[in-house]
């Protein structure tokens, strides 16, 4: 069969790499793709943009696509799934209405409140002065979130009241995240450990994946601003087991059922960003696609044919996922300055010594450097090195051994990804 994969980041590189492994595939077209994906599959960088929905539908028709997979959140929230479905093309991705779970934090919060899905206490505001008054009333620590999409950066975990007020000002007055911040959700600050838990979903069919833990803060010691993710690992041995089962029963399945009851049945990847508190798992956020970088450490562990899994879920069949016993660790290299402003076009080369069987470079913000050998930066998060090994400690050791082979002018990475489960907290 022919497959269309929409997107061009690290998540899509991991998806492309996994899809290419399927015996069920004749051709995979990636739009727009990136230079690294183009080394393994056909990319349509010049043909059609990711926000050109009519062009993507036309491309899918021309290439006789039987299944479309939409990687990033923006085209989902904008309704690309609906356009493809209307053209008779099967899509693994939620409708515009269902994608509001990620596109509007207030929408997600309201459903969680209605169906008693555990989450942080919250209030929503479109009036800046009322938001400021609420912050002063509640005090700190407190969490300020832009209601709309902000590429994983529209969240401030404010340790002080001043920091919270500044976040409100930046989002609502200075429009740091454009219209996404014209409405804000202000939440209690949950205490515990974060856990990423995803499932393949179609209506009330829910097939959970293994868990992962992401590291959102930019710098070692979980310091600095929130990013889209600086590294991840799977499994999460100290949080799996009972918490996993509890989260499936109290969060993932109830949300899938709630969306059916609301008349917006969900199809696609349902991602629950959780905080494991003393009272149990609570939802920090829902996403409507694979987490990034979580996809880059979970997909390498999936032994099942991904295409077969997606088709069986869409057909409502019983699905049992086959997972590797190996652990997987991933560390992101990002442009200096990220998640703030950063320079593009910085040349770099990848380390030559790595295990091609167990280690993959998944590219997000890079381009082939046509002027010299190697690559140049083209985004905030540039690439992730993913490593599979029998234990997490071995996986991280192997990852950092490769990254530490050279200096990275213009790039940086955290040296303590996985510090919660490892004896050594830094790899320098």
From TrEMBL:
InterPro entries: ATP-grasp, ATP_grasp_subdomain_1, PreATP-grasp_dom_sf, PRibGlycinamid_synth_ATP-grasp, PRibGlycinamide_synth, PRibGlycinamide_synth_C-dom, PRibGlycinamide_synth_C_sf, PRibGlycinamide_synth_CS. Pathway: Purine metabolism; IMP biosynthesis via de novo pathway; N(1)-(5-phospho-D-ribosyl)glycinamide from 5-phospho-alpha-D-ribose 1-diphosphate: step 2/2. Gene3D superfamilies: 3.40.50.20, ATP-grasp fold, A domain (3.30.1490.20), ATP-grasp fold, B domain (3.30.470.20), Phosphoribosylglycinamide synthetase, C-terminal domain (3.90.600.10). Keywords: ATP-binding, Ligase, Manganese, Metal-binding, Nucleotide-binding, Purine biosynthesis. Transmembrane segments: none annotated. Residues 109-315 form the ATP-grasp domain. GO terms for biological process: 'de novo' IMP biosynthetic process; purine nucleobase biosynthetic process. Residues 218-237 are annotated as: Disordered. It is an enzyme of class 6 (ligase). It catalyses: 5-phospho-beta-D-ribosylamine + glycine + ATP = N(1)-(5-phospho-beta-D-ribosyl)glycinamide + ADP + phosphate + H(+). SUPFAM superfamilies: Glutathione synthetase ATP-binding domain-like, PreATP-grasp domain, Rudiment single hybrid motif. Its cofactor is Mg(2+); Mn(2+). One of its GO terms (molecular function) is ATP binding. NCBIfam families: purD (TIGR00877). Belongs to the GARS family. This is Phosphoribosylamine--glycine ligase.
């Amino acid at each position: 069969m022919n497959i269309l994969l929409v997107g061009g980041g690290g998540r899509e590189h991991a998806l492309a790499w996994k899809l290419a492994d399927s015996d069920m595939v004749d051709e995979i077209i990636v739009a727009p793709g990136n230079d690294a994906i183009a080394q393994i599959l056909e990319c349509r960088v010049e043909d059609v943009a990711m926000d050109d929905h009519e062009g993507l539908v036309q491309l899918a028709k021309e290439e006789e696509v039987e299944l479309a997979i939409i990687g990033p959140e923006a085209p989902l929230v904008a309704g690309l799934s609906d356009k493809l479905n209307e053209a008779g093309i099967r899509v693994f991705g939620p409708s515009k209405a269902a994608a509001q779970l990620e596109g509007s934090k207030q929408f997600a919060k309201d459903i969680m409140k209605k169906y008693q899905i555990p989450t942080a206490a919250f209030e929503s505001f479109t009036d800046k002065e009322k938001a400021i008054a609420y912050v002063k009333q509640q005090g700190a620590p407190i969490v300020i979130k832009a209601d709309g999409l902000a590429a994983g950066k529209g969240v401030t975990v404010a340790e002080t009241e001043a920091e919270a007020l500044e976040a409100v000002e930046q989002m609502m007055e200075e429009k740091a995240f454009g219209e996404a911040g014209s409405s804000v959700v202000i939440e209690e600050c949950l205490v515990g450990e974060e856990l990423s838990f995803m499932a393949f979903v179609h209506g009330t069919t829910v097939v959970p994946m293994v868990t992962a833990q992401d590291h959102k803060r930019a710098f070692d010691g979980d310091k600095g601003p929130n990013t889209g993710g600086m590294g991840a690992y799977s499994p999460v041995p100290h949080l799996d087991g009972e918490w996993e089962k509890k989260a499936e029963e109290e969060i993932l399945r109830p949300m899938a059922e709630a969306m059916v009851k609301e008349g917006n049945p969900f199809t696609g990847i349902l991602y629950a960003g959780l905080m494991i508190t003393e009272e149990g798992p609570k939802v920090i956020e829902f996403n409507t696609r694979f987490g990034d970088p979580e996809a880059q450490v979970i997909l390498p562990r999936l032994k099942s044919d991904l295409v077969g899994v997606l088709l069986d879920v869409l057909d409502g069949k019983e699905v049992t996922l086959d997972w590797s016993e190996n652990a997987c660790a991933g560390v992101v290299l990002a442009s200096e300055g990220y998640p703030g402003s950063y320079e593009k076009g910085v040349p770099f080369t990848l380390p030559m010594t790595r295990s091609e069987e167990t280690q993959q470079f998944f590219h997000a913000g890079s381009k082939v450097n046509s002027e010299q050998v190697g690559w140049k930066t083209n985004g905030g998060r540039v690439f992730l090195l993913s490593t599979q090994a029998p234990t997490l400690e071995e996986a991280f050791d192997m990852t950092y051994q490769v990254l530490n082979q050279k200096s990275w002018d213009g790039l940086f990475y955290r040296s303590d990804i996985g510090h919660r489960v490892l004896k050594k907290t830094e790899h320098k």
